[in-house]
Write a structure and sequence with these properties.
The complex is a heterodimer of chains A (1054) and B (343). Chain A has 1054 residues and is α/β, with parallel strands linked by helices. Chain B folds into two domains: 2-144, Glucose Oxidase, domain 1 (3-Layer(bba) Sandwich), CATH 3.50.30; 147-341, Class I glutamine amidotransferase (GATase) domain (Rossmann fold). The longest helix of chain B has 12 residues, at 220-231. Classes of the chains: A alpha/beta (1054), B alpha/beta (343).
């Protein structure tokens, strides 16, 4: 075995659709595995919210773009002797492939660990892969690759419609799809070809089952399959979009092992070392199969398989690529057996994706062969029914189980599971549902079992011990049972306790109980009458994790949860983590003392608390999900660590909070809450438009909106909400062109112990999660800053805060307003912690135990900028514009000597590219035109070729800046703006408009702006829609060439 | 219908019946396989045993036609599961598991905590048990019976065409051993456990001693045959029970494992290459003392028990696991090739 000295690990960058938290999990495990060997690890990952970029993992962290240019520079500087490409998703793999092609590894004598680049190339190039499979007599669907649309059409005709179109070298099946005819073929293929160098056209296998195997192999040719998984949805729905169950349910021994053997055969034939995933299509009516895809790296599926089995795939893969044989790696779960085995499950898991499609204006809700989901959950149970109903609740979308959620559309959408339950309830037969959906009758019958049980209970309206247990065994929540019986949730809980119907605590031990395992990986089930563990009692503290990743809550809260759990050790406490998201690090086997892979519902948290008899619960580090149950948990008598529940309520109840601000003489934008339209409009007239409105009940679409006129206000209320006593609508004065500032702090018994202030680049009106954030707050003047510190101290004291808190301020004309306050860890906490060097999450735990020391954070001699990552390209039809509703799926943050340097690194990290020095400029309104003219002049001086729409062109001309006039779409003259973008004549699009005008356009149904924005996104061209961000970007370009950006590690800045 | 699962130590588990309703007794064992119940249930090695499935959901793909089974009937005495599925879905399914069990007169019960049962068997060892419907019956230990004799065929059977003639001594052979050998183009003569193979008027090229139920020491007459095979220097392959019989015939010894190995994920290391194979296993006894002139061929990677022996010079070899799989992984099918090459 070769001993390596220093390994460079590539991370996956910002979370985006198709590539999310799973790579924080795999990277973190890899770093741990390398560290154990005494090997130094250098990590490149601009995703500052990840756990892998925390202080106690890699030896060196570079918050830099994972692109060939930057990675090569780090190689030159750090001189690693090996590089690991398989832990950072498609981003790391693609980057590595390019570096290899350029000969960088050879030049700097860097060994590529694990699977060879040649093999990766075969597995990624669909045609080569198909040819290879043919050579080893493995079936693959008839297919051909092409880089042209015309040839593609010919191939499709040959194969016969329907055909499947897949984009080569693309993550998460981006721009793949099924075409039923020539017209659809043209649409899908041209979209795919704008992203990928080639497309693959293949036979579409109607209603085939989709089955996956996770395989590991060492360099001695030992090879095992760790897990198999069956998709609930038939072929055609991306595995990331499908409900997935492990192990497979409908395969018999022959099929299970036939596909297992094939997986191993393929992996061996390609000499893969490490982890690999193989996907199959299997005919439901015969043993015919086809290999669909293979990923020679850790993937979303491998993270799921790892959590589903307890087999630490990424850790093992890391050991394997160092040269260890499987037989020499101890099974981390049992600690008595070793890793060359195949886990036996004595439970089943159900993964359900979490979508947020409705959050995007205009996006299509149909799901298919490319990913749209933003996260996932995994329910564990001893029956499919138990696992699937748990998973539904874990989604945190308000559904309490599969039944009665009011959907009936059986086409593939995020709501199909609910629709199935609903049509079965109405009496449609399993057979008919199967014919329409292709979902195996096995699954449909299980859902029918749930539906039937509910119907039975609704009819009987009575529960005895036996029937209550039966309901719990098939996954009904207390709340759902209560609704059926017209009772309260707590009544059912009490009845359960009376009958002694309590969930059992079972361990996931990888061997189905065959060996005594020292595992802390637990779940709860009603199919038991013993517990695998004994309570930790008051030594235990429960930490509530974040639940599924979604827009607005993602890896940043996983970081907070993990840090909080780690912080408990110092106080002799055992951390009991509760979370249900298989993509997270917090659900890793070695992150806490006990892990309950469970629902973050009141019912389950109370079950765990009562079983463990814990000291208390931490609700303030996992974001909104745990926060939402805080009140109920407190009311039930469970101790919450940190700020008291009544004080949390004083901050969360808008009326109480507003009263508090008034009593402390703290300014806030005028606001009120209304139950009728008349008083609402009167208020709006009084404070003056624009106003920000927030309905408490949302029918569809966005929950928040800014209205600039009464007309808009009426339209929004009518369309998006339902006003009434039950559903009040909150309206506040929206202050235009104001600056937004974030204050993050930790207090102990009302005294602030540490704080940091950062400011947004975009003006107020852009959701803080979508904003570009700069630390230190350069745009905040001394007076305003001091006022914010004063306000924060006043509020901390008045609310007697103990723990983390966040205040959002707005500054206009040197007046400081409070717009929001949360008594919990905020989205910016990992960013703030990493840029200040003070771990705010750990400090919060210190505060819980009365031990927080005070930090005086010095004004730094560097700047860090956090930039949002959007995934609009994934969401067909969605309007890629920044609004009050959050739309970004992830974030990055980089350091620099100046804000411009840090910002440039950040935007490059989010995928921005300006290799072609050409830009399209379209600016609305004279004020904006004036403000942006200087930037355009700078671009011109930088040698950019500039295209501009009519008014912008003439305005700039009058200022002496020459641009090429380009037609808007409505002008009906070619070439128009969209053509310019489609033909990739530009690499940047500046489409800058006042929010007011965008709103008006939207309301009037004017499509021009939308078409420009969408074209940019669809053609993978960088788009700026915010004038402040655009100006900062041009300023940065003016100041720095990419070559000038400093290659400095995190510790070199701090 | 309700049933009771009662263990020798007095523990009682309430069960819900889904199979045949008649009391049975046997040795309670658990298997960790996640798929392959039709194969497992028809494996004669399970004779006399009440089987607990650690995988909680059983019955999902129904029961296929007879030719996919491992023998002509269900051999287990009873089946204990967590959740029984009565709505199977599979193109090969001919009937539900419940219908099958009823027809075969084998009880099947759903018991609430099969994981607890597994832990109990793991910690205290395999237990005598009974499934009771109404009237009680006494416990009876199947290992005191000559189970191999009970499941073995009664008359020799001749089949296959090939240059080599292989004798398969059936102590309860799974049909896939037959299929695996026939696939390799041999003339196959399957004989009863106590048959005098040297009375056969054909040239014998090799002998396979099959898997089977119970204590190997009960199969005394097969041990005698095995001794003769060794003396005659005929190539010999033992599988599972056949492995133990070879050890006993060659002067080694066997012992009863605490709770045995039953499942499809047992890692075995081939001692020469150090390669690891995932194997199917179903045994309660194992080789303790390795006979003279033999060396360990395979060792269990989990608990380091012996998983097969091979002679230093002669073509005598045996494996504790099932190279014929069904159910389970096909990683070790090469053992048949290895054996046939030595002929």
């Amino acid at each position: 075995m070769i001993k390596f000295r220093k390994i460079l690990l590539l991370g996956s960058g910002a979370l985006k659709i198709g590539q999310a938290g799973e790579f924080d999990y795999s990277g973190s495990q890899a770093i741990k595995a390398f560290k154990e060997e005494g090997i130094k690890t250098v990590l490149i990952n601009p995703n500052i919210a990840t756990i892998q970029t925390s202080e106690d993992l890699a030896d060196k962290v570079y918050f830099l773009p994972v692109t060939p240019e930057f990675v090569e520079k780090v190689i030159v500087k750090e001189k690693p002797d090996a590089i690991a490409l398989s832990f950072g998703g498609q981003t790391a793999l693609n980057c590595g492939m390019e570096l290899n092609k350029k000969g960088v590894f050879k030049k700097h004598q860097v060994t590529v660990l694990g699977t060879s680049v040649k093999t990766i190339d075969i597995s990624e190039d669909r045609q080569k892969f198909a040819a290879h499979l043919k050579k080893i007599n493995v079936m693959t669907p008839e297919s051909k690759a092409t880089d042209s649309l015309a040839e593609g059409l010919k191939i499709a005709k040959e194969i016969g419609y329907p055909v499947m179109i897949r984009a080569g070298f693309a993550l998460g099946g981006q721009k793949s799809g099924v075409a039923q005819n020539e017209k659809e073929f043209k649409e899908i293929s041209s979209a795919a070809l704008s992203f990928a160098p080639q497309i693959l056209v293949e036979k579409y296998l109607h209603h085939y089952k989709e089955i996956e195997y996770e395989v590991v192999r060492d360099n001695q040719d030992n090879c095992v399959t760790v897990c198999n998984m069956e998709n609930f949805d038939p072929l055609g729905i991306h595995t990331g979009e499908s409900i997935v169950i492990a192990p497979s349910q409908t395969l018999n021994n022959h099929q299970y092992h036939m596909l297992r053997e094939l997986s191993i055969k393929i992996v061996r034939s390609l000499n893969i070392v490490g982890e690999c995933n193989v996907q199959f299509a299997l005919d439901p009516k015969s043993n015919n199969y086809y290999v669909i895809e293979m990923n020679a790296r850790l993937s979303r599926s491998s993270a799921l398989a790892s959590k589903a089995t307890g087999y630490p795939l990424a850790y093992i893969a890391a050991k394997l690529i160092l040269g260890y044989p499987l037989t020499k790696i101890i099974n981390q779960v049992t600690r008595v057996t070793q890793s060359a085995f195949e886990p036996a499950l004595d439970y089943c898991v159900v993964k359900i994706p979490r979508w947020d499609i409705e959050k995007f204006k205009g996006a299509q809700v149909k799901i298919g062969s490319s990913m749209k989901s933003v996260g996932e959950v995994m329910g564990i149970g001893r029956s499919f029914e138990e696992a699937v109903q748990k998973a539904v609740r874990m989604l945190d979308i308000g559904a309490d189980g599969v039944t009665d959620n009011g959907f009936s559309d059986l086409t593939p959408t995020p709501k199909r599971l609910f629709a199935i339950a609903s049509v079965l309830k109405k009496g449609l037969s399993v057979d008919k549902v199967y014919k329409q959906t292709g979902i195996d009758p096995w699954f449909l019958n299980r859902i029918k079992n749930i539906v039937d049980a509910e119907r039975e209970l609704a009819k009987k309206k009575r529960l005895n011990k036996e029937s209550l247990l039966e309901m719990k065994k098939i996954g009904f929540s207390d709340k759902r049972i209560a609704v059926i019986l017209g009772k309260k949730e707590i009544d059912i809980r009490k009845l359960r306790q009376k009958y002694n119907i309590l969930p059992s605590v079972f361990a996931i031990d990888t061997l189905a109980g065959e060996f005594p395992a020292k595992t802390n990986y637990l779940y709860m089930t009603y199919w038991g009458n013993h517990n695998d563990v004994t309570p930790l009692n008051s030594k235990g503290v429960i930490v509530l994790g974040s639940g599924p990743y979604r827009i607005g809550s993602s890896v940043e809260f996983d970081w907070c949860s993990v840090m909080a759990a780690k912080g408990l050790t110092k106080y002799g406490k055992k951390a009991i983590m509760v979370n249900c998201n298989p993509e997270t690090v917090s659900t890793d086997y070695d992150m806490c003392d006990r892990l309950y892979f469970e629902e973050l519902s009141f019912e389950r948290v109370a079950d765990i608390y009562e079983f463990e008899k814990s000291q208390g619960v931490i609700v303030s580090v996992g974001g909104q999900t745990p926060n939402n149950i805080a009140r109920k948990v407190h009311k039930y008598g469970i101790k919450i660590l940190g700020t008291g529940a009544s004080d949390i309520d004083r901050a969360e109840d808008r009326n109480k909070f507003s009263g508090l601000l008034d009593s402390l003489n703290i300014k806030q934008p005028a606001w009120n809450s209304f139950t009728d339209i008349k008083s609402l409009t009167e208020f709006a007239d009084k404070v003056g438009y624009p106003v920000l409105i927030r309905p408490s009940y949302v029918l569809s679409g966005a929950a928040m909106n800014i209205c600039y006129t009464q007309e808009e206000l009426m339209m929004f209320i009518k369309k998006a909400s339902d006003i009434g006593r039950e559903h009040p609508v909150t309206v506040s004065k929206f202050i235009e062109e104001a600056r937004e500032v974030e204050y993050d702090g930790v207090a102990q018994e009302g005294v602030v112990k540490a704080y940091a202030i950062s400011n947004h680049i975009e003006n107020a009106g852009v959701h803080s999660g979508d904003a570009t954030i700069v630390y230190p707050a350069e745009r905040v003047r001394y007076y305003s800053g001091a006022r914010m510190v004063e306000i924060a101290s006043l509020l901390a004291k008045s609310l007697n805060i103990t723990g983390p808190f966040n205040i959002q301020f707005m500054v206009k004309n040197n007046e400081v307003y409070v717009i929001e306050m949360n008594l919990r860890a905020s989205r910016t906490l990992p960013f703030i912690s990493k840029v200040t060097g003070v771990n705010f999450a750990r400090l919060a735990v210190d505060a819980f135990f009365g031990q927080a020391r005070e930090y005086k954070i010095k004004y730094p001699d560097y700047v860090a900028v956090k930039a949002p990552q959007f995934s609009f390209a994934r969401l067909e039809g969605a309007d890629p514009i920044l609004r009050v509703e959050m739309a970004s799926t992830g974030e990055v943050a980089c350091f620099g000597d100046t804000a411009e340097e840090a910002y440039l690194k950040s935007v490059i990290s989010t995928g921005l590219s300006f290799k072609k020095k050409a830009a399209l400029v379209s600016v609305g309104g004279d004020e904006y035109k004036m403000r942006f003219a200087e930037s355009v002049w700078r671009l011109k001086n930088l040698g950019f070729k500039l295209y501009a729409t009519r008014r912008t062109h003439f305005f700039l001309k009058s200022k002496g800046v020459q641009t090429i006039l380009i037609n808007k779409v409505y002008e009906n003259r070619k070439p128009n703006v969209v053509d310019i973008i489609k033909d990739k004549n530009v690499s940047l699009v500046f489409h800058l408009n006042k929010m007011e005008d965008v709103n008006e356009e939207f309301n009037k149904g004017i499509m021009d702006g939308y078409l420009i924005r969408r074209a940019a996104v669809d053609n993978n061209i960088s788009l700026f829609t915010d004038i402040n961000a655009a100006r900062l970007f041009v300023m940065a370009l003016d100041k720095y060439k990419v070559e000038d950006l400093k290659i400095k590690s995190w510790d070199e800045y701090l | 219908m309700k049933a009771k699962l009662i263990l020798k130590d007095g523990s009682i588990f309430e069960g819900k019946s889904f199979g045949y309703e008649g009391s049975v007794t046997g040795e309670l064992v658990f298997s960790t396989g996640m798929t392959g119940y039709p194969e497992a249930l028809t494996d004669p090695s399970y004779k006399g045993q009440i089987l607990v499935s650690t995988y909680p959901i059983v019955g999902s793909y129904g029961v296929p036609e007879r030719k996919k089974w491992e023998s002509g009937r269900v051999h287990i005495s009873g089946l204990v599961v967590n959740q029984y599925i009565d709505t199977p879905s599979h193109f090969e399914s001919k009937k539900t598991l419940a219908q099958w069990l009823k027809k075969e007169k084998v009880p099947g019960v759903e018991v609430l905590d099969t994981r607890y049962l597994t832990h109990l068997l793991r910690d205290r060892g395999a237990q005598l048990a009974k499934i009771i419907f109404g009237k009680d019956i006494p416990f009876s230990d199947p290992n005191l019976r000559n189970l191999a004799a009970e499941v073995s065929i009664k008359e020799p059977n001749f089949e296959g065409k090939g240059k080599k003639t292989i004798i398969l001594i059936d102590c309860g052979a799974k049909e896939n051993i037959r299929r695996s050998l026939l696939k390799r183009n041999v003339r196959l003569i399957t004989v009863p456990w106590d048959y005098d193979i040297f009375s056969i008027k054909e040239k014998i090229d090799g002998v396979v001693i099959s898997n089977g139920p119970g204590d190997p020491k009960m199969a005394d007459r097969t041990i005698v045959t095995a001794k003769k095979v060794l003396e005659n220097k005929l190539p010999l392959l033992g599988i599972c029970l056949g492995n133990q019989i070879l050890a006993l015939a060659a002067g080694g010894d066997t012992y009863k494992l605490k709770f045995g190995h039953r499942g499809q994920n047992q890692p075995c290391i081939e001692q020469n290459s150090k390669r690891c194979y995932i194997t199917t296993q179903n045994h309660g006894f194992a080789i303790g003392k390795i006979p003279k002139d033999f060396k360990p061929w395979f060792v269990n990677a989990n608990d380091e028990t012996n998983e097969g022996i091979i002679h230093e010079k002669m073509p005598f070899m045996s494996v504790q696991f099932h190279p014929e799989a069904t159910p389970g992984p096909n990683d070790t099918e090469w053992v048949f090739d290895h054996f046939l090459k030595k002929i």
